[in-house]
Amino acid sequence: MDAFTRFTNQTQGRDRLFFRLGNVVHAIQATEQSIHATDLVPRLCLTLANLNRVIYFICDTILWVRSVGLTSGINKEKWRTRAAHHYCFSLLLSLVRDLYEISLQMKRVTRDRAKKEKSASQDPLGYSVADEETEWLQSFLLLLFRSLKQHPPLLLDTVKNLCDILNPLDQLGIYKSNPGIIGLGGLVSSIAGMITVAYPQMKLKTR
Question: Where are the transmembrane segments (predicted)?
Fold first, then answer.
């Protein structure tokens, strides 16, 4: 207790502690907000994802307390693995939400395109892309590209989550990546995060 008191009396240590506890508070607030989402799938995915983020930040804070020497009775590897698990679960659930939103967006694009092609078919000079979409995979990728192109916040959120998940997958030994790939993923994720901060309209909204 004396060590903790001395530590919190130091400005730098106190600020770092409150910054980490602030992450926990923000994750709890995000959980409360996601509970009120109108669509069932995003509500479940985001609520569970945010709950896992809360646990992840708690684990991260415990690891930090251990790293600064406030206590020595903490199993570092155990808590690091636990933190990686919850971070991975959070990102997987966020990606499920992204995939759900992508599927809805693809349905909208398909529906809108069908209306345009139906209208164009009445014109003898109308153009159809049926020939260029003969292959299923090509057709799917083209539709995916058009869907994400029309919804930049969804593209940004998906890319960020895919980049973020590389690190916990590597830590847990599920999918090994070299440090260069993980570093690049972290850089792309950071850029995506800065874009959403600079341009709030680029943040994927919860419906």
Answer: 180-199
pLDDT number for residue 120: 64
CA separation, residue 13 to residues 23, 31, 72 (Å): 16, 28, 17
* CA dist., res. 99 & res. 58, Å (int): 28
- Quick one: tokens of 53? 């983020």
Please provide residue 55's backbone torsions phi and psi, each rounded to the nearest 5 degrees: -65, -40
Q: How far apart are CA 112 and CA 13, in angstroms?
A: 56
- Per-residue model confidence as pLDDT tens digits over 26-58: 899 999 999 999 999 999 999 999 999 999 999
The C-alpha atoms of residue 148 and residue 151 are separated, in whole angstroms, by: 5
Structural domain boundaries of the chain? 20-109, 148-206
- Residue 199 to residues 153, 156, 203, Cα–Cα distance (Å): 10, 12, 8
Quote helix, strand, coil % in the chain, to nearest 5.
Answer: 80, 0, 20
